[in-house]
Each structure stands twice: as structure tokens, then as C-alpha cells.
Amino acid sequence: MNTGAASLETRHRSEPSQSRSAWKYLAGLLPVDDLSRAARQGDATQLIRPKRGISNGALKTGDSIAACTRALYRNRQGHLLLTGRKGVGKTTLVRELAQQAATGEIPFLANKQFIWIDAKNVGPEDSRACLESIFAAVAQELDLVLCLDGLGALLKRTGGGTNKPLLRAMMNRVDLRVIGVMSSWEYNDLIGGDAEMLELFTRIEIDEPGEEAAAAVTRLHADRLSRQYGLQINPQIADRTVALASTFILNECHPAKSIRILERVCEDADYDGSQLDREHTEISVGDVVRAIAEKTGIPAHTIAGESDKVDFEAALLDAVVGQDEPVRQTANELRLIKAGLAEPGKPAAVLLFAGMTGVGKTELAKRIAELYSTSRRLQIYSMGNFTEPHSVSGIIGVPPGYVGHEEGGRLINELNADPYSVFLLDEAEKCHPNIWKPFLNLFDEGWIVDQRGVKAYADRAIFILTTNAGDKNIAQMAKSGKPAEEITEKVKQALSRVRQERSTQPVFPPQFLSRIKRIMIFSPLDESAMIGIAERVCRRMQQLWLQKREKRIEIARAVIEQIGRRAHRLNEQSNGQEGGRIVRKMVSDLIETRIQSSATEDGAAYKHCTTILVSAAESVPSEERSDGEADHAPLMNVRFDGNRSAEE
């Protein structure tokens, strides 16, 4: 509700002033709230908006309010700029400041009126008109504190222009104070290098609270939710929510992410009670686990096994087989990112996955994206499509004057859409060396600019390069039992020798390789790994058949082991060129095709069955192995049934 416009209209109702119509017009453009009026009328609790900041009382013991009041008291730099990541409580800090001012706790602000304007969704094409409307609305107002949430959006104009001169003119009024709210990277991009703007603002960076502080805030919100929904929420549930959210939700900040999980749990419980007639009186850890599982896609059993300690191995091992060392190293990287120990001003991680084809490099990257990215999607760049110098336009956009210039660069657009993106630069050795030039600055300084001049920051993004370079060395040294450090050094040497086919230039110059934080070696797949892959492929096939055809497939263990062993033999014969992908083909050929053939032969039995039993039969020679012995393709027995198991 635009209470700010309504209350200001009330103040000017006795005089048909331009101010009243200006506020009315502004209220039609942007959300406006009168924070002081709400506080004086006893509506302070309504200032804590669900899915936004933290509880009022939580900030009173800290230094944030004191720092803000000191800044607003100054004659020079008397305007306030709050910067920080989304969800750390910037907006709620403004609301808390307004409440304390309205209740007389900050005497020099007691007569000030705090007006909050939400400008986060203003586009560059509308920013000047919106700022002019704000200017017109405040022109006749006295003793006003104008809170601009989304100040960065108001300053940006199309074509790289800026509205800073207009903002400075508005801020030069003696009786007006401005509180701007923006992200840290917007500050660096728009204000950090502008001496005139820095003369007006005092900047306060709001950091993400630690788990202990986040737990205290979450417990306060748990009390609010308990009263709102009539549910019992023990303090231990709030603490566990913080611990689990901290571990498994990496792309949001405390305290917002744990509060949102509790809100989701309470909403689900309320729905169950009001719509499904399922009484729900108390929130349990299981409810929290299910909510986090739904949000992240991580299996609930994985989440339930973790609480106080951070351990990503289980979630990563669920995606790949036989690659324990890369999984361990990746988990360590995620721990560092979660703890905020990634190197400042650089991407969260720049990793290189080296190994033969089909050993799980892409699958591990996909799981990292599911754990880390806001979209849970892996952004894949097939570097084999960038073999010409000009093909860099597919990353940073086409130059001015060419068709598609206004679309900008794909990488920049994806970073701005999701700062927590995970990028896979697949088959990195195949691209032209010039393609890596924009990545040099990106990996070193943490930002990149497209052909439009639009900048994107990558300090929260993860970049993963994959390569087959040195795969023969990996296979030979792994079989010989060489240590991982020695294999890694050999791969580095192989990477430095890679030449682009057309230009004969080194694909990876030394300055590029030095920017890669960690090289992870993926070992060749042994027989047990192939059996593990066969087990997972069969499990996925069973799930698909149950979902799409409503038929349960039971597969005997002997079938899975036969497929895994044969896949390993064929992979060895191909010198590792088949990889784990051959398992999917074998499952399709040996199980699904056999089921379809049996369904054609006995359509009635297939139609009425609820269970399909697959067991191993006698094998028949199919081809000669390199050692002269017959390689037997497993022959499967298929039976349509309703309740018996395949092992019978």
C-alpha cells in the first residue's frame, strides 16, 4: 500500500498544492510508504515485511543504527548510502531507523518524516522520468528523509548515461536527507569513482551476519510466525534451519534465507490444514528438510544427514561415480565459498576438470550448479564453437553498427541475471586463443564489459573448464599408481603445449593458466565405477517408466553387474574413448529394447501388468575380444507380472 503518498496528500489537503498532485502521480509509478506514520500509529510490526529483512529488536544492540544516525547528523556527507548483498537487512535497517526516530529514541530525527520509495524495478529507459517525479514530489516538503531502495536503478540510463547530476541537485537542499540502498557492485560501478558523489554520501557496508546472529534473528521471526499461523516452533527448529540453510543454500544471505524457509514451512502447514484437512500443530526438522530439498533439489536424505558441520561430499557423490578425489576437492572449494574465504575481487572459483571423455566432468559441473546457482542450471559454452578470432562476439556481443549489438554479450547478460551462475567452458582446448582475452581480466579482477559498455561482476560466479588434453598421460600414470600431484603437473605441461589448429598459437598462454585456481584430475573408470554407473542409469530408467508409463521395472542385480563389466571391457578396448556414456546405450539396447520386443510379442500381458521383471539369461557370443576370447553380450529375460520380484 502506498501509505507515503496518502499521508502526504493528507498533509496538503487544505491547500490545492502541486506537491499533493506530485505525490499522487509518483504513487502511480513506484511503491511509496510513509515509515514514520506507520511507526507512530503503532504499526511497527507491519514494517517487517515477510521475505525481507530481520526483526526490529535485533538491530538495536548493534552498531548499525549508531553509524547511520551519526552520518545523518553531519553537515558534510550528511546523506547515507547503505550497500551490501541482497538479504542482509539493508532495507529493514532503514525501517528500524525510521521507527526509532518516530518513537523519540533519536531526538534530532524525531520530527523528520521517513518516506520509502522502492525503485529496484525501474529500467534505464524510465529512470530519469522517475527521478524527476521524485524531485517534483519532494520539492515542497520540509524535514524529509527520503529512502531510495534501488538507488542504482535510478542512476542508470540507456546508452551508458547517468542521472547523477539530477540526484545531486535534489540532495543539495539543506532540509532533505537521502538514504540510498544499493548493492556493493553497483556502488563500485556508479559512485565509488565519483568524487562529487562521495562528497555527499557516507557509505556504510552491511555485512552478512554470522550464524549465531542469524539464529537469534530467525528465532524472533519464528515467534512471529508461530503467532501468525498458530503453530508451535521450538527455538531449536530455528537454529537447525539456520544451520541447514547455511550449508545447502549458498546463493542467498542470512538472515533472509532461513526466514524464508521457515515462512515456506508455515505456509505449507497452513495449506495442509485449511485445504487438505490435515492438522499440523508443530513444525519439525523434517518439515524444514523437505522445504530445503524442494528449493535446492538436493535429496532430503542428504540434507537430513547434515546439520552443524558442512559436508558437500554426499551431495556431489550422488552425481558421479569413481571420482572421489575431484569430489573431495570440489567440496573443499564450496566450503571456502560458503565461509566467505574466496579471494576478494575474483570469481568465487575458477576450476579446470581434466580427464578422458565420459568420466563425469560434466555431471559433476551440473551438480555444482544445482547446489550453488540461483537458477540451478549449468550455463554451458561449447568452446569448439569459438574457433575464429571474431567468434568472441558470442561471449561479449557484436561491435556497434552490427546487427544484434543491442542484445549485448551472452556472458554479461547471464552474470547480471544470476550473479551465482556456474559456467561450463566445455572442451576448452578447442577454441581460438583470442577467446580467452576477456577472461584474463574476468578471472583476475572479477568483472567484464560487453560491446555495449555494460559491466557485469563475477565475484559470486563459478567457472569450470573441461579438457581432454593430456588424457593419455592421465590414463598411463593412473594405471602406474602415480600420485595426483605428479599427474597434475603433467597435465599442466600438456595444456601449455596445446596449439590451435588454424593459427598454431598456444591456446592457453601462461598468464591464463596462472589464473586457474585448481586443476582436478578425473581418473579412468574401473570396473566397479562402471557397475555403479549402470546402477544409476537403471535407477533413472525405472523412475521414468514409473512416472510416464506407470509400470515398475525390477532389475536383477546380476543384470546390472553384467552390463557394468561389459561396459568396462568395451571402454578398455577403445582406450577409454567410450567412457561412462556407453552404459546408457547398453541399458537402452539390452533392457528397454528387450522390453519393447516382449511387449510386441505379448501385448495383452504387457498392457495389464504392473511390474516388469528383468533377469539375466544365458549369454551368447557377440564379438571377439582383443585377447581372442569371446565377449558375451548379456541376454535378458523379461516377464510381465504384478507382484513377484526379479530375483525369484
Helix content estimate = 40-55%
What percentage of amino acids are in beta strands? 5-15%
CATH superfamily of the largest domain: P-loop containing nucleotide triphosphate hydrolases
The number of helical elements comes to 28
Q: What gap, in angstroms, lies between the N and C termini?
A: 67 Å
CATH architecture of the largest domain: 3-Layer(aba) Sandwich
Side by side, the strands of the main sheet go: 1-3-4-5-2-6
Shape: globular
Report the average pLDDT across residues. Answer: 85
CATH topology of the largest domain: Rossmann fold
Radius of gyration: 30 Å
Per DSSP E runs of 2 or more residues, the count of β-strands stands at 18
Oligomer: single chain
Broad structural category:
alpha/beta
Q: How many domain modules?
A: 4
Uncertain runs are 11-16, 44-61, 306-310, 620-630, 644-648
The CATH class of the largest domain: Alpha Beta
Task: Give the SSE map.
Blueprint: H1 3-11, H2 18-29, E1 32-34, H3 35-40, H4 64-73, E2 79-83, H5 90-102, E3 113-118, H6 127-138, E4 144-149, H7 151-155, H8 164-171, E5 176-182, H9 184-190, H10 195-200, E6 201-205, H11 211-229, H12 235-248, H13 256-275, H14 285-296, H15 300-304, H16 313-317, H17 324-338, E7 349-354, H18 361-372, E8 378-382, H19 393-396, H20 410-417, E9 422-426, H21 437-445, E10 447-449, E11 455-457, E12 462-467, H22 471-479, H23 484-497, H24 510-513, E13 518-521, H25 527-549, E14 552-555, H26 557-573, H27 581-601, H28 603-608, E15 611-616, E16 620-624, E17 630-633, E18 636-641
Parallel strand pairs: 2-5, 2-6, 3-4, 4-5, 7-12, 7-13, 8-9, 9-12, 14-15
Antiparallel strand pairs: 1-3, 10-11, 15-18, 16-17
